[in-house]
From TrEMBL:
The keyword Repeat does not apply. InterPro entries: NAD(P)-bd_dom_sf, SDR_fam, Sec_Metab_Biosynth_Oxidored. This is Short-chain dehydrogenase/reductase. GO terms for molecular function: oxidoreductase activity. The keyword Oxidoreductase applies. Keywords: Oxidoreductase. Pfam families: adh_short.
Length: 352
């Protein structure tokens, strides 16, 4: 376990790094993303930060807070509905037009609903889009900018280490759907897709994080989606169970501190750094480099499945992922993802 004391010591050292870090945060108007972007603003040296979200008006207080935390920083809000692939492409084009390099992509948009499969206008399940398809599209689109950084990193807050068996013949979850199935599918596909990307872009670190129980408002919002006879039980849970869970949970502030640690620490180096002398903030005494998801002849692949204590998940017992790798399921998932993106954009185009 990386102690919170070591996390804070590492984060505070970020002020000594050169100025001009460029970062993109998606899903940072609430929850863990919000906690992390605040920590990033607090400790980074004159950064430039793109915050992507649905409502600029709602995000105005956040932008003001970030500017107070770091008067030398530049904070830009990009307003869009990020669950749509066409909107992801538009946002990425805007960023690529304005930047020559990108140091960090931090994705954490969330969505829970009791109403079963809910499709976007592009035909993708909303949960699957926000947890996997849109997230990965953002990362894929911005790889040219990431590749130009001395120390590029991608962080996805989801369920690293919680991968499970999935139906390879129903990756879009059209035949069999539940939130549990969707969550398992997104987690497993995210890790395997990161591993596939890392083969072509070994200069980038890919971090898939399971944050554990955090006192965000996503469960409260989830209880508001119940209808019919389930409304009353959901209300009771909102006023009784959820407050108890929040008292037991990690605070958003602490989750944000750990989010910044994962985003900046030398604990999670890429397989082949652009600059071997610049792989993140130096490790505090007693903190070791994390184990990547795949080791080949002692060399890591630059993909990390990270638990809520900021340590990498032990890979030895991962028979599910190992079996999928041997069967080249990672390649199958990547090819299917490309097809889903293509179909989504074609559907958007048909609405014009």
């Amino acid at each position: 376990m990386v102690s919170i004391k070591d996390v804070r010591r590492s984060n505070s050292s970020l002020t000594e790094k050169p100025s001009g870090t460029v970062a993109v945060f998606v899903g940072a108007t609430s929850g863990i993303g919000l906690g992390t972007v605040k920590q990033f603003a607090k400790y980074s040296n004159a950064p430039k930060v793109y915050v992507v979200g649905r409502s600029k008006q709602s995000a105005t207080p956040l932008l003001h807070e970030l500017e107070v935390l770091n008067p030398k920083g530049i904070f830009i809000f990009v307003e869009t509905e990020i669950s749509l692939i066409k909107n992801v492409d538009a946002v990425c084009e805007e960023i690529k037009t304005n930047e020559q390099k990108l140091d960090l992509v931090f994705v954490s948009p969330g969505f829970l609903s009791s109403e079963g499969r809910k499709e976007t206008s592009e035909g993708i399940d909303m949960y699957s889009s926000l947890s996997y398809y849109a997230r990965l599209r953002i990362v894929h689109n911005l790889i040219p900018l990431l590749s130009a950084s001395r120390n590029p990193r991608v962080v996805s807050i989801l369920a690293g280490g919680k991968e499970n068996a999935i139906d390879i013949n129903d990756l879009e979850l059209r035949k069999n759907y539940s939130l549990v199935i969707a969550a398992n599918s997104a987690a497993t596909q995210m890790t395997l897709a990161f591993e596939e990307l890392a083969k072509s872009y070994p200069m980038i670190s890919f971090c898939h994080v399971y944050p554990g129980l955090v006192a965000t408002d996503i469960i409260t919002k989830f209880t508001g989606t119940f209808k019919g006879i389930w409304v009353l039980p959901a209300m009771l849970a909102r006023w009784t169970l959820i407050p108890v869970l929040h008292r037991l949970a990690t605070t958003v502030d602490e989750a944000g501190e750990r989010g910044l640690f994962v985003a900046t620490s030398a604990k999670y180096p890429p397989a082949e750094p652009n600059d071997p002398l610049e792989v993140g903030v130096a490790l505090p005494d007693g903190v070791e480099v994390a184990k990547s998801s795949v080791l080949n002849s002692g060399k890591g692949n630059g993909v990390y499945r990270i638990h809520n204590d900021s340590e990498s998940v032990e890979n030895e017992a991962d028979s599910i992922l190992e079996g999928y790798r041997l069967d080249q399921v990672d390649k199958t998932i990547w090819e299917q993802t490309l097809e889903v993106w293509k179909a989504a954009l074609e559907k958007s185009e048909s609405f014009k």
